[in-house]
Structure formats: structure tokens, C-alpha cells
């Protein structure tokens, strides 16, 4: 499942512009900025070789979704990266709620 821009609450933090500069500025977690920078370098190298801007457009769109998430819930992004770090380190992490339960709750307006 991917985040969709319409999933964000109206009146919350504004969505960043769909530009590389605005997207990077909206990324509040260092791991996101580092991944963005590394990914951008790789994508620009690919564009130079293949002369295909489609990969850059895809990159911008994917990172714009992350930037929207970062603007909407910066603490959630920090928790996500902390949990990913724990998992990568082999630490035991408590199980979260199942996606189906969260989606059902959202659909029912709770």
C-alpha cells in the first residue's frame, strides 16, 4: 500500500511543492535526506546515460509522497526510521497493529 496525497488531513501542514528543492527541504529525518541525495545522484546518472526523464519524474513523485508524509507527521517518520533501525540491528520490536485493522478503522471514520 502506498500513501496517497488525498489521505492527508485538510488544514494540516501544507504539502510541499513538487520540486526537488521543496521536497528535500520537507524531509525532516536525516535518513530521508541522505536517501534522497543518494537516490537523486543515481537517477541523474541514469538520466544522463538513457536520456529518459521518466525515471526523474518517478523519483520526484515517490519522494514527494514521502515529503508530504514528513510534513504531515514528522514524528511518525522518526518513529518509522527508529523501528527500521531496530529491525535492521536484529532487535526485537513489539508487533504493530495489522494494516487491515487500521484500514477498517479509517474506513469507519474512527
What is the gist of this entry?
This protein is 65% helix and 0% strand. The chain has 110 residues and is mostly helical.
Major sheet attributes: none
Task: Supply the number of helical segments.
Answer: 5
> What does the radius of gyration come to?
16 Å
Overall pLDDT: 86
- Give the number of DSSP strands: 0
- Low-pLDDT stretches are 1-11
Helix-strand topology string: HHHHH
Task: Explain this structure.
65% of the residues lie in helices and 0% in strands. It contains 5 helices and no strands. The longest helix has 21 residues, at 30-50. The chain is globular, with a radius of gyration of 16 Å.
Explain the layout of strands and helices.
Blueprint: H1 20-26, H2 30-50, H3 54-72, H4 74-88, H5 99-107
Helix pairs in contact: 1-3, 2-3, 3-4
Which key terms come to mind for this protein?
110 residues, 0% strand
Amino acid at each position: 500500500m502506498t500513501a496517497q496525497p488525498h489521505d492527508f488531513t485538510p488544514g494540516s501542514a501544507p504539502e510541499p511543492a513538487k520540486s526537488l528543492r521543496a521536497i528535500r527541504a520537507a524531509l525532516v529525518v536525516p535518513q530521508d535526506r541522505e536517501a534522497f541525495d543518494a537516490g537523486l545522484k543515481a537517477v541523474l546518472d541514469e538520466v544522463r546515460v538513457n536520456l529518459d526523464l521518466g525515471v526523474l519524474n518517478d523519483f520526484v513523485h515517490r519522494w514527494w509522497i514521502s515529503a508530504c508524509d514528513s510534513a504531515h507527521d514528522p514524528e511518525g517518520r522518526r518513529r518509522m526510521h527508529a523501528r527500521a533501525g531496530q529491525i535492521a540491528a536484529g532487535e526485537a520490536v513489539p508487533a504493530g497493529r495489522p494494516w487491515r485493522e487500521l484500514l477498517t478503522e479509517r474506513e469507519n471514520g474512527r
